[in-house]
């Protein structure tokens, strides 16, 4: 049986080399990596529980084992980076971005979440997804961090940007970031002084009126595309790290579909 979000041969060939090679010792693998990936994408797209994966996939315990294994060894992030650079080159851009847009999305979470809070502005009890995207936007998330919803945007941005800039050196190419008015204040000085990166706030000119704001519409479009994945309509994960991985999975699937059409 085939589902709409199963990988095509072209899409699978784009990421096949990212997975470990078959061992020359021991018995042959019972469940191919491609079958496991299809099951994980199915869960992320439909929002079903692990235990309710269709029976024709590998046993749910096996699928979940590999999902958790690849989460811990950061394979998902590596695949995401590989595809993001591929798409940027295909679009005629440089491999690494020099500008980005930052924003947050508040989502409800379940009672089993290990860390959550109340966002008084959005009246949501749950978590916030802090994302950093490049100017291509929707499929090119640079970094995502899931934190309790009661954390102010500026405080969450500090954690996100600190984690972003202290990692691999290509990320320090980002020299300009666009943000909304909620990030104004000490964050701008802190980012410029510590990371030599400027933060420009794009504010609304009219209230209660829809208007496409420069640069900010890119990250809003990203949130819109993430909303099409039912597992992301609400934060169902116990650990915040798992919630971040689910966002990476959605972006990986979007980029595979886009690159597969090129």
Structure summary:
The protein is of the alpha/beta class and 262 residues long. The protein has helices at 9-15, 33-46, 60-72, 75-90, 153-165, 186-195, 216-226, 240-260, and strands at 99-108, 117-119, 124-134, 141-148, 176-179, 198-201. It contains 8 helices and 6 strands; from the N terminus they run ααααββββαβαβαα.
Textual characterization of the structure:
By secondary structure, the protein is α/β, with parallel strands linked by helices. It contains 8 helices and 6 strands; from the N terminus they run ααααββββαβαβαα. α6 links the parallel β5 and β6.
In CATH, the architecture is 2-Layer Sandwich
The H/E string reads HHHHEEEEHEHEHH
Which superfamily, in CATH terms, is the homologous superfamily?
A: Ribonuclease H-like superfamily/Ribonuclease H
* First-residue to last-residue Cα separation: 26 Å
Average pLDDT confidence is: 85
Label the structural class. Answer: alpha/beta
Q: What would the principal axes of the Cα set say about the shape?
A: globular
> Beta-sheet strand percentage?
15-25%
Q: Class in CATH?
A: Alpha Beta
Biggest β-sheet description:
6 strands, mixed
Q: Assembly type of the shown chains?
A: single chain
Q: Write down the domain tally.
A: 1
Helical content class: 40-55%
Instruction: Count helical runs.
Output: 8
Number of E-type strands: 6
Ranges where pLDDT stays below 50 over 5 or more residues in a row are none
The CATH topology is Nucleotidyltransferase, domain 5
Any idea what the radius of gyration is?
19 Å
């Amino acid at each position: 049986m085939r589902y709409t979000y199963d990988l095509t041969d072209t899409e699978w060939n784009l990421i096949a080399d990212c997975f470990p090679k078959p061992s020359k010792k021991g018995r042959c693998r019972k469940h191919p990596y491609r079958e496991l990936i299809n099951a994980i994408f199915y869960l992320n797209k439909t929002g079903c529980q692990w235990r309710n994966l269709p029976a024709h996939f590998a046993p749910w315990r096996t699928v979940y084992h590999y999902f958790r294994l690849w989460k811990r060894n950061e394979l998902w992030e590596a695949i995401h980076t590989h595809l993001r650079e591929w798409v940027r080159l295909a679009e005629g851009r440089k491999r690494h971005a020099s500008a980005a847009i930052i924003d947050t999305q508040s989502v409800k979470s379940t009672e089993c979440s290990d860390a959550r809070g109340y966002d008084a502005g959005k009246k949501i009890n749950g978590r916030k997804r802090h994302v950093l995207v490049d100017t291509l936007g929707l499929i090119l998330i640079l970094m995502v961090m899931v934190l309790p919803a009661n954390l102010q945007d500026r405080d969450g941005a500090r954690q996100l940007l600190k984690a972003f800039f202290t990692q691999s050196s290509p990320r320090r190419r980002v020299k300009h970031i666009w943000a909304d008015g909620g990030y104004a204040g000490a964050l701008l000085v802190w980012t410029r002084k510590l990371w030599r990166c400027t933060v420009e706030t794009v504010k609304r000119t009219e209230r209660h009126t829809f208007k496409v704001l420069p640069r900010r519409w890119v990250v809003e479009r990203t949130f819109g595309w993430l909303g099409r994945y039912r597992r992301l309509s609400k934060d169902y994960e116990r650990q915040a790290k798992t919630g971040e991985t689910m966002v990476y999975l959605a972006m990986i699937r979007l980029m595979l579909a886009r690159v597969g059409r090129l």
